[in-house]
Amino acid sequence: MSELQLAVIDVKPGAAMDSQSGLQLLRPRIYGAFRAPPGPKKIAAIVMHPTSNFMGHYLIGPLAERGICCMGLNSRFVGNDTVLLMERAIQDLGAGVQYLRAAGYEKVFLVGNSGGAALAAFYQAQAEQLTATHLPDGDPTHLHQSDLPPVDGLALCAAHLGRTRLMRDWIDPSVTDEHDPLSVDPELDMYDPRHRVPYEADFLARFSAAQKARMDRIEQWCLDRLALLRSTPGAPRDQTFVVYRTHADPRCVDLSLDANARLPGSVWGDARQVNYSANAMGRTTSLTAFLSQWSSRSQADGPTNLARTTAPKLLLTYTGDQSTFPSTRDAWMAAGGARIRNVDIVGGNHYLAGQPELIPQAADAIAEFAHAL
Questions:
Q1: R_g of the chain computed on alpha carbons
Q2: Taking the model in full, what pTM does it have?
Q3: What is the rounded distance in angstroms from the CA atom of residue 371 to the CA atom of residue 343?
Q4: Averaged pLDDT, 5-32
Q5: Torsion over CA of 32, 33, 38 and 41, rounded to 10 degrees?
Q6: What average pLDDT is seen over the chain?
Q7: Average pLDDT for residues 238-247, to the nearest whole number?
Q8: β-strand 29-35 against 69-74: which pairing, if any?
Q9: How far is the CA of 141 from the CAs of 90, 147, 313, 348, in angstroms?
C-alpha cells in the first residue's frame, strides 16, 4: 500500500476570528491525509466532518486497497465548533474537491460519515444550485459557484440527519435556568428515576414539546441579541454563550424506541454523564454559529439537501448504532428517492469501534458503488 500523504490546501478567508491562530488568519489552510493507489488516477473520495479530525479515518486505507484514493480532510474548524459556520465548511470541502480534480482524478465522490453526511448533502445541493448566498444571520456568505465543483456521487455511512435535527432531538428540556447547568425540572428529566423505562407515551410527548420550546427560546434569544449588538455603535457583531445539557435523547436509555441492535448509552459513554459534561455537542457556541449549525434556520439539514441533488447515492446503515436509528435510515431513503440504495452493516456501532471485521464490509460496499459511477 502507498504511504500516507499530506495535503495542504489554501482556502478563502472567512470570518475575522474563525481561527485563533494569527498565521492561519493571514493564510488560511486546511489539511488532509490520503493514500493514492498505484496506477491511473481514476477515482478519489473525500471523507470530511465539520469538526472531527478525519485524517486517520478507518476507510482511508481500505479504500486505497480497493483502488480508490481516499482523503481524510479537516475543515478550518477542526476540533472546535464554537464559531463554525456550515456555509464556510462547505467552502473548505470544495477546496478539497478542487485539489483532487487538479491532481487528475477523473471521478470524485464524497463519503459522508456521521456528521459528515449532512455536510456532504449540503455541499452537493449547493454545488448543483447555489442558494446559500446569505448566512442565517443575514450576512453574505461570499460563496461562488466556482467554489463548489459538483461531485459524482455521495456515500453516507452512520449518517446523522444534520446538526439542527440532532440538537432538536438531544437537547435537555428539563433545564430551568440557562445560566445554571444543575437546574432541573424533575417532571421533564428523563434521567430522574421516577420516569421508568420504557417511557410512557404521555411523558415522551411532553418531553418532545418541551425540547422544541427550549430550542425556540434559545433561537429567539440569539436573534434578539444579534439585533441588539448590530444596532449598538461600537458593539461586536457576535458573542459566545453556553448551552447546557445537550445530550438527552430518550433512545439512549429506552431501547424499545426506534429499536435496533444498539447497546444502552451513547457513543461517548454514559448518556447522563455526557449530558452534564463540560464539553459536549454545541456546548459553547456563538450566536451566528448557533443559527448556522443548530437552529431551525440552518441551511444544512441533511435530507432536505439530499432531496435537491441528482448524483447517485449510497447509504450504509450501521444496525448497532447508538445515535442513528431506523427512522434515520428512513428519512435518508425518502429524501434520496430512486437514486439511493441502502446497505446494512449488521451489528455495526457508530464508529465500527472494536469491529475490525466490519470495516471491509463497509469498504466493499463503497468501492462497488464508486467503481460504478
A1: 21
A2: 0.96
A3: 16
A4: 78
A5: -10
A6: 95
A7: 97
A8: antiparallel
A9: 11, 12, 27, 38
pLDDT at 23 over 80: no
The pLDDT confidence band at residue 1, using thresholds 50, 70 and 90, is low
C-alpha cell of residue 234: 461600537
Q: Which residues contact 25 (CB under 8 A, 6 or more apart)?
A: 13, 16, 17, 19
The tens digit of pLDDT for each residue in 45-85 reads 999 999 999 999 999 999 999 999 999 999 999 999 999 99
Residue 55 backbone phi and psi in degrees, to 5: -70, -15
Q: Are 241 and 247 in contact (CB under 8 A)?
A: no
**Per-residue model confidence as pLDDT tens digits over 191-203:** 999 999 999 999 9
Give yes or no for a contact between 72 and 33, defined as CB atoms under 8 angstroms apart. yes
User: Does the pLDDT value for residue 7 go beyond 60?
Assistant: yes
Evaluate whether 60 touches 4 at the Cβ level (below 8 Å). yes
Residues 6+ apart with CB under 8 A from 350: 114, 158, 267, 318, 321, 322, 323, 324
Residue count of the chain: 373
- Residue in 145, 137, 120, 162 with CA at minimum distance from that of residue 15: 137
Strand partners, 79: none
Please name the residues in contact with 339: beta carbons below 8 A apart, sequence gap of 6 or more: 310, 311, 312, 313
- Cα separation, 310 vs 93, in Å, equals 19
Residue in this structure with the C-alpha cell 451489528, named with its chain if needed: 347
Nearest-angstrom CA–CA distance, 259 and 333 = 18
**Residues 320/347, Cβ–Cβ less than 8 Å:** yes
